[in-house]
Write a structure and sequence with these properties.
The protein is of the alpha/beta class and 330 residues long. It has helices at 31-44, 62-72, 87-97, 117-125, 143-160, 176-179, 192-198, 225-242, 246-274, 286-314; strands at residues 2-5, 8-11, 16-24, 49-55, 76-81, 100-105, 131-135, 172-175, 204-208, 323-327.
Length: 330
């Protein structure tokens, strides 16, 4: 981890080499097998590590399994939400808790392989990437999921300027400082690379990773992702560019519309006073109402930008997620 003190950068050694963040929801069957697989990989590579399971309000006994794993392995930690908040909330809580130099995120359904972790760790520590995203080049998902994913990834590349093949891959690696510098909320887990880029971490890499067929249970994502995905993409693009300066967006549109409307009105007035003094009244012209509408909308856009600036400068409250229980999380 890198910290900045007295105009100098210092490298701070954290408690673990690797922190593995695993959000889960009703994955009781897969957790013991996933934990065993992770321990095998960590032991073979001599990594110091922690595994942070975030139970997103499971109803199937998943938390009991996490407690049992903690009793057997002190490296297992857990956070249990009071209710289901979603994957983004689980990742955010996990990011707040981790203490490893490299943070790995992976899904709990055994579709992400822990065997990829050593190479991801190397790409962060040796190749100095800020973030490495997995690319499930060969997928075992139904066509109803793969086609929308390809469209979302294409749109995300065009809008964010980050050329990744699989933005939503659950298997990712980060420098610790990256996860401590971003806030994941709503459904923004799909677009963590853009959040990292807008936070100043632009060295983003990609690695082809093995994708496993789902072994237990069913997918937790419904049809709402087809609507939420594009909306979240527009949100993250807007927030990244204008979150700290909303007046630059709303104010620019407002001024442009007001100037156009005022220009039309001025032209109509000039013509009526000096050229066509006995012609059609200004109020009877369609263009007069167009100019009036443009000036009103322009004023509203400008005020929206001004109010957004005031709110942005005075608001610093973060999202609050109610945690019911924890295991060994400081």
């Amino acid at each position: 981890m890198i910290i900045f003190v007295a105009n100098k950068f210092y490298t701070l050694k954290l408690k673990y080499d690797i922190s593995i963040v695993v959000p889960l929801y009703n994955e009781v069957e897969s957790l013991p097998e996933l934990h065993k697989w992770i321990v095998k990989v960590m032991t073979e590579n001599n990594f110091s590590y922690e595994v942070v399971f975030i139970d997103d309000g499971s109803k199937d006994g998943s938390w009991k399994v996490v407690e049992e794993l903690n009793e057997k392995d002190a490296n297992v930690k857990g956070i249990k939400f009071q209710r289901n908040y979603g994957k983004s909330a689980a990742l955010q809580k996990g990011f707040e808790a981790v203490q490893g130099d490299v943070v790995i995120t992976m899904d709990a359904d055994l579709q992400d392989s822990p065997e990829e972790i050593p190479e991801l760790y190397k790409m962060i520590m040796k190749d100095d990437f800020d973030l490495v995203s997995g690319w499930k080049k060969k997928r075992y998902d139904p066509i109803t999921k793969t086609i929308p994913t390809k469209l979302y990834n294409w749109a995300a590349r065009r809008i964010t300027g980050i050329y990744l093949h699989d933005f939503n891959c659950g298997l990712k690696a980060y420098k610790n400082v990256v996860v401590k510098s971003i806030e994941v909320y709503g459904d923004m887990h799909r677009y963590i690379p853009p959040l990292a880029k807008y936070a100043g971490f632009s060295n983003i890499g990609e690695k082809v990773v093995q994708h496993q067929a789902r072994k237990y249970g069913t997918t937790k994502f419904g049809l709402n992702r087809f609507l939420n995905g594009p909306l979240d993409l527009l949100s993250v693009a807007f927030i990244g560019k204008f979150a700290k300066k909303p007046m630059h967006f709303f104010g620019a549109i407002g001024m442009l519309m007001f100037v156009i409307g005022f220009g039309i009105a001025f032209y109509l007035g000039f013509v009526k006073l000096f050229i066509d003094t006995h012609g059609i009244k200004i109020a009877e012209r369609t263009s007069f109402y167009i100019s009036l509408t443009a000036m009103i909308l322009g004023t509203q856009f400008f005020l929206a930008g001004f109010i957004a600036e005031l709110i942005g400068r005075s608001s610093s409250q973060r999202n609050v997620y109610l945690v019911e229980k924890t295991i060994d999380v400081d």
